[in-house]
Amino acid sequence: NEIYLQGLGDKLPPFTTDPTRLEGLARETFDPGPFGYVVGGAGSGATVAANREAFDRWRIVPRMLTDATTRDLGATVLGQSMPAPVLLAPVGVQSIVHPDGELATARAAAALGITMVLSTASSHTIEEVAEANGDGPRWYQLYWPNDNDVTISILHRAKAAGFSALVVTLDTWTLAWRPNDLDQAYLPFIRGIGNAVPFSDPAFRALLAKSPEEDPTAAILQWIPMFTGTDKRWDQLPFLREHWDGPIVLKGIQHVDDARRASDAGMDGIVVSNHGGRQVDGAVAALDMLPEIAAAVGDRLDVLFDSGIRTGADVVKALALGAKAVLLGRPYVYGLGLGGEDGVRHVVRSVLADLDLTLGLSGNRTLADLSPDTLRRT
Ligand code: FNR
Predict the structure, then answer these.
(1) Domain CATH code at residue 222
(2) Per-residue pLDDT tens for 183-221?
(3) What average pLDDT score do residues 348-377 get?
(4) Annotated binding residue at 356?
(5) Is 134 helix (H, G, I), strand (E, B) or coil?
(6) Is the CB of 38 under 6 A from ligand 1?
(7) Does residue 19 contact residue 346 with C-beta atoms inside 8 Å?
(8) Count of domains in the chain?
(9) 251 CB under 6 A from ligand 1?
């Protein structure tokens, strides 16, 4: 209503309410390096495209004369009540698109009561982002370091700073072949690391020959291989349990057997995700794996989903196919670059409003009304 009423009062939105136009606007506005980093995928971009095409193969079948005049978008994920089934995906080095970076994202998320997932590759420290997020709900995403002291230090800091759940990203134990970034010599990425873990974490600093202030390049070069977690295997998950008092979610699950292993290992949740098509070029669309995975483990842990969510209808489809909630990636990062905190808020509110209307107009009052029957595969 607020968005409609603003229009009646002759007030234009800060920028488009059409999520599919955000990428084009960002292309016109951002510097090419940061834009290439955000928009880019692995290799030829086949999986970035596949993620979107998969949504198009499913269509919503609206129902009439149901009581959906007022909707409830409320969801419960990991035992946490959420006003809507949407979280902000962990996205690294956000200061390359806006100087306020993750601080702006944290403020926007808190204003909307939406859970933010902070990346290990954040360009602001864990503590600064927590302060900006205030009483807002927040989870921490871990790139699991090869060094246990550094892992423990980061986990303690995140816990002390009020991050309630841990999201462990498994699909990025090395960076994929990403032509956009290679063509820019990864400069935007490296510049964006700024104040992140390599500079702020005492356990990591202790490993360096020279302080990051004296030799920032050496610190970053040591950080990148350490934070990829090349030595990690399934039998090491108990280490995280030992050092993290709270729910743990594995991000980057694409095979049903891996989903079962996560469940057998006592994990609280998974994110069915292919990292927005940024890791394995030619990988299957994340949405195509969701129904099978949700059917196999959905009653044992919370299944979340990301990779390709752009509109309210996309959220409806992912939930109907078995996700409890979705993570929004690139769209809010475009909002950040286009308008800082207000830009993030505008994008997220637009997606939520679109979700609310699409849910209602298709005859559903709550998320529990959604099921595979809501959709038709075309
Ligand atoms: C990401 N993603 C990501 N994931 C993660 O676990 N840690 C990270 O630091 C990052 N960094 C990152 C940077 C940028 C620029 C993008 C676009 C993505 C992946 C992210 O969490 C999510 O899986 C995808 O963005 C979802 O796909 P869509 O919504 O962007 O299509």
Answers:
(1) 3.20.20.70
(2) 886 777 777 776 666 678 999 999 988 988 888 888 888
(3) 97
(4) no
(5) coil
(6) yes
(7) no
(8) 1
(9) yes
